[in-house]
Amino acid sequence: MHAHARRIAAATLFAAAFAAALPGTASAQIIKDGNDSFSALSVTNEKFQPGAALDPIDNVFGILPSGVASAWASFQATHGPWSAYIDSRSGLIESAEGAGIPWVPGRGNNLSRADIAAALGGRSVPDLSTLETIARNFVSANATLLGLEAKSLVLNQGRSGQPADYLWFVDFDVTRAGLPIDGARVVFRVNHGNLIQFGLENLPPPGVAVPKLAVDSTTAFKIVSDRVGGIDPAADSVLDAGSYRLIPAAVRNDRFAEGFGFGKGYDLVGVWEVKFRRDGVLGTWRARVDGATGELLELRDVNDYAQATGGVILTPGTETVRALPFTNISTGGFANSAGVYNFTGSTTTSALNGQYVRSLDTCGSISLTANSTTGDLAFGTSSGSNCSTPGVGGAGNTRSSRTQFYW
Fold it and tell me: CA-to-CA distance for 206 and 209, rounded, in angstroms?
């Protein structure tokens, strides 16, 4: 009935341009060694990564819910030719783009301040509050097409803003029955005053019910504590003793080749989330307990990890990039035996002064700043010998230092 197209969700549409302008969160690059006492207790749940199944709207127009189909036809008639992709799991639009809909005065339109006076609220120029008001009005006017109500949206200040004088991002989190839906978002991109793209992500259709809550937070915390041999708030760092949220989950129906019926591929699971750290165990551990049944659905380390690497001599005349284990991390502690450490997003440096070995190179000092996005500490390779360096990491970042440190 439909093909699984590549994901071009809201995050994909907008992240590239925005990431260069606003601070973001590092992504996991390397999986840590699974040799700590909690890794063997880990529980993962694949249904919590449903993944959108995208089709061009023209390919599935005939099987869209009648309200969505007529709303899209009306949208096209009002705003001109737009293209869109449908998430076949929800039967709703996942992303759309077009020539532009005037939102605020800009080079792309002939709007004046008088045209948006109500949204300006007495301000002389549009700000994020202005764009938020216009976005909410847009959602209200297209509620059937988008499958949500404006009152369910919560502006995410960290993901919204004006990275350039001609560009705005308005990015909302989504709630249902007053509860946050984990990972659900609605994004609008405004270029030269015109809305040119919008997208929805991880959004179950309106008919998916919010599950009933039968397990309280105290019970959920005890379930997690029992799993890990006891959580002691006096000894462990409890970051979240139990917050309740909704998680989009994949529905599995083997009657269909795709594993789900069109528009019926999402469910909502209510979970109590517990998050903690323990001295001597690497990681920040997140547990999720089903609020309806008390089942432990997930226990996993959610840290964002990065790695220290560098060129070393393994055989004469050949330099090979390898992990640099146990090197110092300026934000605290040391990398592990695989050179992996938890990157917090703060400026991070290393001097190859390890937990067990300290480098001293007569060519100069060593200091390398980690990649600001990934956190990776790439000490690099050197083509020459003696005091030759990769051009980063200081005058002492020589092949000899890296090799001796590695061995």
Answer: 8
Contact between 339 and 363 under an 8 Å Cβ cutoff? The reply is no
Q: How far apart are CA 97 and CA 94, in angstroms?
A: 11
Q: Enter the DSSP assignment of 83.
A: E
Ranges of beta strands (E only) in 251-328 are 266-278, 281-290, 296-301, 305-315, 318-323
SS3 content of the chain, % helix, strand, coil (to 5): 20, 35, 45
Instruction: Please list, residue by residue across 128-151, b when 16 or more beta carbons sit within 10 angstroms of its beta carbon and e when fewer do.
Output: eebbbbbbbebbeebebbbbbebe
Facing residues of 310 across strands? 322
Residue spans of beta strands (DSSP E) within 316-362 = 318-323, 340-342, 349-350
pLDDT in tens, 19-40: 333 333 333 333 445 556 787 8
Burial per residue of 18-33, b for 16 or more beta-carbon CB atoms within 10 angstroms, e otherwise: beeeeeeebeebbebe
pLDDT digits (tens, 9 = 90+) for 231-267: 998 889 999 999 999 999 999 888 988 888 998 999 9
DSSP β-bridge partners for residue 267: 249
pTM: 0.70
The H-or-E segment that residue 171 falls in is strand 167-176
Report the percentage of the chain scoring pLDDT > 70.
Answer: 91
